[in-house]
From TrEMBL:
This is D-alanyl-D-alanine carboxypeptidase family protein. It comes from Evtepia gabavorous. The keyword Hydrolase applies. The lineage of its organism: Bacteria, Bacillati, Bacillota, Clostridia, Eubacteriales. Residues 84-220 form the D-alanyl-D-alanine carboxypeptidase-like core domain. GO terms for biological process: proteolysis. Transmembrane segments: none annotated.
Amino acid sequence: MQKNRILLSLGLLAALSVGLIWFGLSQEVSPDSNAAPVSQAVPPTPVSQEETPDPADWRLCLVNPWHPLPEGYQPQLTQVENGHQVDSRCAADLEAMLADCRAAGHAPLLCSSYRTQEKQTQLYNNLVQKQIARGNSRSEAMAKAAKEVAVPGTSEHQLGLAVDIVDTQNQVLNRAQEDTAVQQWLMEHCWEYGFILRYPPDKEEKTGIIYEPWHYRYVGREYAQAIRQSGLCLEEFLQR
Ligand SMILES: [Zn+2]
C-alpha cells in the first residue's frame, strides 16, 4: 500500500514536471498575443539598376524576330477569364491587374493570350493574304505582315507570358488605344503587377514590332519595375 502511494506520488511529480516544462516551452514559442503576426512571405529580391539581368531567367525569355521560341517550348497553362489561357506563373498577377483596373472604374477586355503555333500561323497567314490583296508581292506582304503579327515561332504569345488587352469602349488594335482609359491606367500601373508595355513607341528597330499600346508582357514584378525605371525596351535591358 505504502509502495503504491510512493509510486503514485512519483507519477504525479513526473506528470507535473512534464507539464511545467511544456508550459515553459509553450510560453517561449507562443507569440505575444498583442504582437503583429510574423509574415511567412519571403520578400521579393529587388533588382538593382546596376545588376546584370540573367537571360536564363524564364521571366526574361526573349522572343522576337531574331530569337525564336526555344525548341518544343510548352508552358504550363492556367485558364483565366473569357476562356483565355496564360503561363500559370503569371495568371494570378494578370487577374489582380484586371481586377484592380476594373475597381478603378475601367472596362478592360482581355482579347488575346497564349497562342499555339497553329493559331499564330493562321493569324500571320491571314495578314499576309490581306497585304497581297492590297497589291503587295508575296515577299512584301510577308515582310509587312511580320511587323504586326509575329512570324510563327517568334511570337511572345506562344510563350504564354503576353496578353493583348483593349478598352471595351474601343476594341480596335490601333494607335488610338493609347488614349483609352484602360490603356492610360495599364500604362501607369502594369509594372506593379509584373507586366511591361512590350512594344513602346520609337523602339520598333529594337523590338522588330510596331508600337502596340495593348500588348503587355509578364517579366515579374522586380524586373517590370527595373525596366520601367530604365526606360529601355526588353531587348535593350537584356543587352546592358
Ligand atoms: Zn500581342
